[in-house]
Amino acid sequence: MSIMDQFFQQLINGISLGSIYALIALGYTMVYGIMKLINFAHGDIYMVGAYIGFFCITIMHWSVLPALLVSMVLTGILGVLIERLAYRPLRSAPRLSVLITAIGVSFFLEYTMMYFVTPQPRTFPKVLSDAAYHIGPFVVNNQQIMIFAITIILMALLTYIVQYTKVGKAMRAVSFDTETAQLMGINANRIISFTFGIGSALAAAAGVLVGIYYNSIDPLMGIMPGLKAFVAAVLGGIGILPGAAAGGIILGIVEALVSGFISSTFRDAAAFAILILVLLFKPSGLLGKNTNEKV
Amino acid sequence: MKSLRKLDLKVIVISLIIFAILQGLLSSDTLDAFWELNMIVICINIILSVSLNLINGYTGQFSLGHAGFMAIGAYTGAVLTVNFHMPFLISLIASFITAAIIGGLIGLPTMRLSGDYLAIATLGLGEIIRIVIMNVNYVGGAAGFMGIPRYTTFAWAFFVMLFVVFFIKNYVNSSFGRACIAIRENEIAAETMGINTTVYKVLAFTIGAGFAGVAGCLFAHVICIAHPSSFTFLASFNYLIMIVLGGLGSITGSIAGAFVLTSLSALLSAWPELRMSIYAVILILLMFYRPQGLFGNIELTSLPIFKRFKGGK
Fold first, then answer.
1. Are B287 and A101 in contact (CB < 8 Å)?
2. Which of A125, A127, B20, B264 is the most buried (most CB within 10 A)?
3. Going by C-beta distance under 8 Å and a sequence separation of 6 or more, which residues neighbour residue A132?
4. B313 falls in which pLDDT band (50, 70, 90)?
5. B284 CA to chain A: closest CA distance, Å?
6. What's the pTM value of the predicted model, to 2 decimals?
């Protein structure tokens, strides 16, 4: 395999990995945009989504799409519940308390899940054939096509909700200025719940897709993707939806190239190095605008 | 100032008595090796939580990379004792210096960040340190550094712990500590008052990192192996939970947090999943009902009862 072929191959791998990061990052960035909370538990919600999908496919013998939908709905409800029980009581608390609560929720999801499903990784059933297609210099397989397709559909749906529906308008208003939005008659609590629900559903979709792509899920699988989704969100400009999508895909490509050409052990380091470089040189992210702190 | 020293002296005397009792019980085999190990781990965790409290509690810089510095200290110490046959004390000092230097170098650029961004950046840097160590074959790579002699005894752990606690206590009571607290309360106001915030933030970060390195060195010399998986950010979270439980900005709190959680995890070691779920629930309930931690920013030694009890004429 020539270097060029290998490059294209890693590019395709990177874009499919990146689409998954993008799906998680969209939820992350929405929640951050609206509540200014790093939701450490977001990666674990994605893990729960993967497990629900896994049980739908193995125990209920459903095909991929219904499993995906059920997983998204149930995980969406879980997200709303978490917000209701853990974050809402702290709405007026200092940021640090909320951040620590998020770490607590993350641990709770991981280890409670581990208690029920054992720490051993599970093999995700093969739901698609391994057929590969040659398109010019690119080789794409079934799983990757499915990931692209589902990611694009979900992103289009999200864009539609945020840009063209009433609730989307309310979300943007709350994220811009919560208090003023409430004065305008928007129920901020309901909008925040809704945002959590959508974000968690997207994370669940990413979880199921990862299961299909890597064939393996485990209770701690959410930690790294969760952190990387934050990196992706920061890279694109936190709170900006197209930024999160772009950030996710760039991060996926960089990681695939690093693991393909340098060493796969350095791929996590690459993600964090990107984070630190972005924070140092363009803290507002690629698509963000600089804001000045008011004293 | 004089009464402060008098109080210090009393605390030292009480600590020595506690040490003598525990050491006596160990020497007479009343407490077995399991107890000794846990007592050493408690001392190490106290060092880690007190040093992390200097950064997070007193200076208000939310750092999540403490395990990375612990790893640096563990590996530095291991290389010196195993490959260069240095005495243990030299290894400890060298692990402090190495971790402090790397902490300072990392602190310089990252201390420009604040809040959530700093948290994630330090977490990322901690992981980068771990991944780099994992790829250095000289120190055993992913398999870990094996064959480290078991130099850390209860006496070593206890006296190093005592030194670190007093160092940090005196640091936060000095003008440096006042500056740190001013930065925590309001960074912009502190800057306006003429405090060079960068210097104090980086200094606190450097000292905290250095002592984390010492703790790492002690840790490597008690479990006789330095393995990259001991120093993930889960470990950093663990120390964070300790100081949050005890109270950010309280040395007594850090000690209590480290003591309570290490004992709890030793008791629940048979059910590791349950242990972490309990941790998580404690953390969440704590944030709901007592976000300032058990001690808030109060020190046991500053309570009037304690003063009368030991400071009385």
1. yes
2. A127
3. A139, A140, A141, A142
4. very low
5. 5
6. 0.87
Please list every residue in chain B whose beta carbon sits closer than 8 Å to the beta carbon of residue A42. Answer: none
Quick check: A230 and B131 CB within 8 A?
no
User: Does residue B220 have a pLDDT over 60?
Assistant: yes
Q: Which residue has the tokens 């960089």?
A: A254
* pLDDT tens per residue, range A198-211: 999 999 999 999 99
The per-residue pLDDT of chain B, averaged, comes to: 88
- Mention every residue, 6+ apart, whose C-beta is less than 8 A from residue A293: none
Half-sphere exposure of B264 (CA within 13 A, CB side): 18
Q: In this complex, do A269 and B284 lie within 8 Å of one another by their Cβ atoms? A: no
Lowest mean pLDDT among A279-288, B109-118, B294-303: B294-303
Within 8 A of B121 by CB-CB distance, chain A residues are: 275-276, 279
**How confident is the model at residue B303, as a pLDDT?**
65
Interface touch A279/B121, C-beta < 8 Å: yes
Query: What is residue B39's predicted lDDT score, i.e. its pLDDT?
Result: 92
Instruction: Please give the single-letter amino acid code of residue B228.
Output: P
Low-confidence ranges of chain A (pLDDT < 70): 1, 290-295
Element spanning B8, H or E: helix B2-27
Q: Which residues contact A264 (CB under 8 A, 6 or more apart)?
A: none
Nearest to A100 among B125, B142, B287 (CB): B287
DSSP string, B25-47: HHHTTSS-HHHHHHHHHHHHHHH
pLDDT band for position B149 (cuts 50, 70, 90): very high
Q: How much is the average pLDDT of B5-29?
A: 86
Counting one residue from A and one from B, how many pairs have CB atoms under 8 Å apart? 114
**Residue B40 to residue B258: CA distance in whole angstroms:** 12
In this structure, how many other beta carbons lie within 10 angstroms of the beta carbon of residue A281? 7
DSSP string of A150-206, one letter each residue: HHHHHHHHHHHHHHHSHHHHHHHHHHH-HHHHHHTT--HHHHHHHHHHHHHHHHHHH
8 Å CB contact of B127 and A269: yes
**What's the one-letter identity of residue A175?**
S
**What span, in angstroms and rounded, lies between the C-alpha atoms of A255 and B279?**
33
Do A207 and A147 contact (CB within 8 A), yes or no?
no
For residue range B121-133, list pLDDT tens digits in order.
898 899 899 999 9
Contact (Cβ atoms closer than 8 angstroms) between residue B216 and residue B70: yes
